[in-house]
């Protein structure tokens, strides 16, 4: 006959209680100008710890500590007087304040990276040719001299240029050298190939280096998975004038903003959000509330930013206004502050000029002109650079681009009255470049 398990458990002897470790002994330590060696011996008296001291341990200590454990007492003395120690089991070794060498492990590849992202909008005006130029963040200023010139070039209406350079090992080495200083005997040696850093400094400085490297390791190991949808919408007849984004309200779950950045710090304006919880900013604002600077030069841009907890609502809304075509649904994973680039499409060669031929003479044979080719990309590209903070908030630089290059015949007149036709490249580009700040799991839609 089989006894039910519930009855067996009820009749079983109760399990023995878990043996809890003995609590750390607590001591009171009150000394004034006492010899350091005698103080350390007094700390472990009547405790299960053993004490070893380096021969160079000397000096006097003045300490008032009440109801502290042995490790707490040693920590307090180390923070004030610099006596370092090491606990191995029940054995404590105390060292005199002196230069020490520690080896730290840094898990990061030795691969410096350099990335750039540019967006330019050509203006209709023209500028005189210039001999020098200077570049500022987000704008370009051309300085022209007084030399006579009839050459003209199209002015740049607006431009955004973003660059990023990542060389973590060089940055860490420079930062650690700043922490330990350049005093006698101090040194920092890095081996990116082995993933280690050797630092020789005082114990207090080594503890600061350890805290810094731990914080840096946590920051660079943050990773984000970005899922994007690049869509193209052909509006129906009733919506050719545009989309009323205020109709996208979804119970307060979505926020959106659209407007114009004039490119002038004295007249920047932005239409306030269609939801009351997304404020705009007043004219003349130079930066957003989160510190993102607005452009200071250029002819202005128009754009839309939309945030929601689900992207399907956006697609469903757009489908009621026109024909929606999903061009690409890329998914990119990248580390903190690392640029990720996705490129889907094809490259074709187009004629962009000719090398002039030569005219034949009685003694030489003429040569025909030969075309010069340049490769143009058609397709979808997306580059993103995230910055992730402790609260899983993400500041994201996004640069999507949809390019379609076709052949267009160009006809021109020659000086002899004849005309010629050559095939050239005609490019259609939908492109945006912006920075947004969102929380983990949210969706942002950007369009122009």
TrEMBL record:
Low complexity bias: start-end ranges: 122-149
Domain Secretin/TonB short N-terminal: 49-97
GO biological process, one term: pilus assembly
Gene Ontology CC: outer membrane; type II protein secretion system complex
Pfam families for the chain: Secretin, Secretin_N_2, STN
Lineage of the organism: unclassified sequences, metagenomes, ecological metagenomes
Protein name as catalogued: Type II secretion system protein D
Annotated organism of origin: mine drainage metagenome
Gene: outD_9
Coiled-coil parts of chain: none
Region spans: Disordered: 115-162
């Amino acid at each position: 006959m089989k006894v039910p398990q519930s009855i067996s458990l009820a009749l079983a002897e109760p399990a023995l209680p878990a043996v809890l470790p003995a609590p750390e002994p607590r001591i009171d330590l009150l000394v004034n100008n006492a010899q350091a060696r005698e103080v350390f011996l007094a700390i472990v008296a009547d405790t299960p710890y053993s004490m070893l001291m380096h021969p160079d341990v000397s000096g006097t200590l003045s300490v008032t500590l009440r109801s502290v454990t042995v490790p707490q007492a040693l920590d307090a003395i180390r923070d004030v007087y610099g006596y370092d120690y090491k606990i191995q089991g029940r054995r404590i070794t105390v060292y005199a304040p002196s230069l020490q060498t520690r080896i730290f492990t840094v898990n990061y590849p030795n691969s410096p990276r350099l990335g750039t992202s540019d967006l330019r909008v050509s203006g209709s005006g023209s500028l005189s040719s210039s001999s020098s130029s200077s570049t500022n963040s987000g704008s370009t200023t051309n300085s022209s001299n007084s030399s006579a010139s009839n050459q003209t070039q199209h002015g740049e209406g607006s431009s955004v240029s973003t660059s990023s350079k990542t060389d973590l090992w060089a940055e860490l080495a420079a930062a650690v050298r700043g922490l330990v200083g350049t005093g006698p005997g101090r040194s920092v040696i890095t081996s990116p190939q082995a993933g280690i850093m050797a630092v020789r400094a005082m114990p207090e400085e080594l503890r600061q280096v350890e805290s810094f490297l731990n914080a840096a390791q946590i920051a660079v190991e943050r990773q984000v998975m970005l899922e994007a949808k690049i869509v193209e919408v052909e509006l129906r007849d009733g919506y050719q004038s545009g989309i009323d984004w205020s109709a996208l309200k979804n119970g307060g779950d979505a926020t959106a903003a659209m407007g114009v950045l004039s490119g002038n710090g004295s007249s920047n304006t932005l239409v306030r959000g269609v939801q009351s919880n997304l404020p705009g900013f007043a004219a003349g604002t130079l930066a957003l509330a989160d510190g993102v600077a607005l452009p200071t030069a250029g002819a202005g841009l128009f754009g839309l930013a939309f945030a929601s907890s689900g992207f399907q609502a956006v697609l469903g809304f757009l489908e009621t206004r026109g024909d929606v075509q999903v061009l690409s649904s890329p998914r990119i994973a990248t580390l903190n502050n690392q640029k990720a680039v996705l490129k889907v499409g094809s490259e074709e060669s187009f004629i962009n000029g000719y090398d002039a031929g030569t005219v034949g003479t009685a003694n030489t044979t003429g040569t025909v002109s030969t075309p010069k080719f340049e490769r143009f990309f058609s397709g979808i590209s997306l580059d993103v650079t995230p910055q992730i903070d402790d609260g899983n908030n993400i500041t994201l630089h996004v640069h999507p681009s949809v390019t379609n290059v076709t052949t267009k015949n160009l006809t021109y007149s020659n000086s002899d009255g004849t005309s010629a036709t050559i095939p050239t490249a005609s490019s259609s580009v939908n492109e945006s470049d912006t920075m947004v700040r969102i929380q983990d799991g949210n969706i942002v839609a950007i369009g122009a």
